[in-house]
Structures are given as structure tokens and as C-alpha cells.
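Example 3.2
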Amino acid sequence: MRRLEALSNTIFGVAMTLLAYDLPKARGFAKAPSWIDLANAYAQPLIALMISFIVAGMFWFSHHRRLAVAPEGSRGEVFLNLIFLLSIIILPVTNGLYGTYRLDSVVAVVYGVHLTFVATLNALLWLLALRGRGDPELLATAIFPVFALVFGTVMAAVAPFVAQFLWCLAFGAPLAGWLAARRWPPRAN
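Structure, written as C-alpha cells:
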């Protein structure tokens, strides 16, 4: 799992850096841009970049926390981790699409489905890491983003502008974990 951790650091670092690849370049302007030109060129891609960067950072943190909780894993768990990392590698692709066509419902749904897939893989890996342990805080923290992202993705089909705000609910995962820990204290092993 230590080798997987080193690989994941590289993958997350490269994927998070590539999120900026689709930002408009200065050569795209025929002359020095006005404030309105800059806002029109950069607003959508920057919103997508910020959402994707924060989401990737959240999953990077969760991934490292999970590897600390379960420092050993089966061959199947390593393979599932690799699929999780593949879903992170694809993030710059869907981010670029979303940054260009953020208010299109089809694109917003594709982006939301991708984020939900990443969250679902993360939650599944947490379920495997917490097998036999009664830790409602970690479990709720892992599962909550899936529900928030599904809700936002469903909304993306009818109101793509609203979906971006609903996806941000996934960042409430620590609060969901805290509430779960208060409601269901961890059981003794």
C-alpha cells in the first residue's frame, strides 16, 4: 500500500495540475483584453477548475486517510484503488468539457456522473477499509458525498446552474461524520 500511496500522490498531483490546461491562453485574444473579455473568457473555466480542484483535493485527503486506516490490502483492493486513481486521471477531461459548457445540462450531467463515480469508488474503498470496525464517523464521511453528488447530478439534468452549488454540499462530509459520531458512538472492538 505504500507504493500505492506514492503512485497516488503522483497521479493526484498531475491530474490536479492538468485541470488548468483548458484555461484560455493569452494568445487567444487579438488585443489586450478588457475586464469584460477576461470575465467572459475565464469565468466558466475557473469555476470548473475550482470545483474540480477542491473535489480532487478532498478525495486525495480521503485516500491518504484511508490508506493510514488500512495500511494493508488484498490484491482486489489494490486493483479497486487503481480504478479509483484512473477515475482521478480522467478528471481533467470532464473538467475541460464542463468548463467550456458548464450551463449545458448534458455536459453537467456527464461531469456529475463522473464526480459521483469517483465518490462511489472512494466510499466502496472506505467500506472495505472499515470492515469489521464500528466507526460511524468515517463511514458517514465517506458515504455522504455520494448522496450529495447524486442529488446535484439529478438537478444538473434540469437546472445545470444550480447543480454546481449542490455538488458543493459534498464538502459537508466532515459535518455528516461528526453528526454520525454523536448519534452512533463507535462500538468497541
